[in-house]
Amino acid sequence: MTFTTELANRTTDLRRQIHQMPFNRSLAEGSLPKPVFQGYVIQDAHYLEGFARALSLAAAKAPDAESVAQLAGSAAGAIAVERELHSHYMGLFGISAAQFEAAEVSAACDHYVSFLLRMTGLGDFGEAIAALLPCFWIYRDIGKEIAAQTDAANPYIAWIDTYSSDAFDHSVQRMLDLTDRVGALTNEAGRQRMHRAFERSCWHEWHFWDSAWHQRHWAMPGTEIGAERREASQA
After folding, report:
1. From CA 125, how far away is CA 123, in angstroms rounded?
2. CA–CA separation, 199 vs 211, rounded Å?
3. What is the pTM of this model?
4. Straight-line distance from the first to the last Cα atom of the chain, in angstroms, rounded to the nearest whole number
5. Which of 2, 30, 197, 214 has the CB geometry, 3.0–4.6 Å to 131, for a possible disulfide?
């Protein structure tokens, strides 16, 4: 059994719940409300910058030149996608530059990025790549599942095509292969640290989409959830 198979087996229920989330089911149906997707895209742009920084930190810890090049290349790719969100997707989905600039990073986005930077900055190399893996793996699986259920008339087909593409699949497989190599060379204590990092990042993936669906921002003392959502939608 490969190490990534072990990771998958220990997170089966959580990853299944991510696939069944209202955000992803509505995305597949093409019925996701536009303001919800707009808020998601804005937060995703913020997230990708942090994700690229975390990949760069992991690259600095890599034990060989091939792994350095792979992770550094993924960091550059994450920034390229972030720029594409600004130059194409935001216009495509009606998000103005002013709207993006006025939108504060959500609590869920901030929490996820902070976790990745902590794992890649303070953890060992195995923890770093295990924490980064869910963003690759879960998005690939969600993208392919949705692509198999929808058609070109879906208003979010551009997003779906990105994460169901052969190019993205290739980058995900390389990350899976790297994780398997590291897991095979790591002692049991190190593998358990990798499991914990992977499981926590899977939870952050769920939390990010859940926050986007409910349009959550930052909960404040005495603030009702409904008011919080209205404030976020008006940002």
Report:
1. 7
2. 18
3. 0.91
4. 48
5. 197
Instruction: Of 30, 39, 28, give the one whose Cα is nearest residue 143.
Output: 28
10 Å CB burial of residue 66 (0-12, 13-18, 19+) is exposed
| Predicted pLDDT of residue 223 | 60
**Residue 133 contacts residue 201 (beta carbons within 8 Å):** yes
pLDDT of 227 > 60? The answer is no
- State whether residue 153 is helix, strand or coil: coil
- 51: number of Cβ within 10 Å: 25
Q: Contact 55/129 with Cβ under 8 angstroms?
A: no
Beta-carbon contacts of residue 209 (< 8 Å; ≥ 6 apart): 18, 21, 23, 24, 40
What token pair was written down for 27? Answer: 């995305």
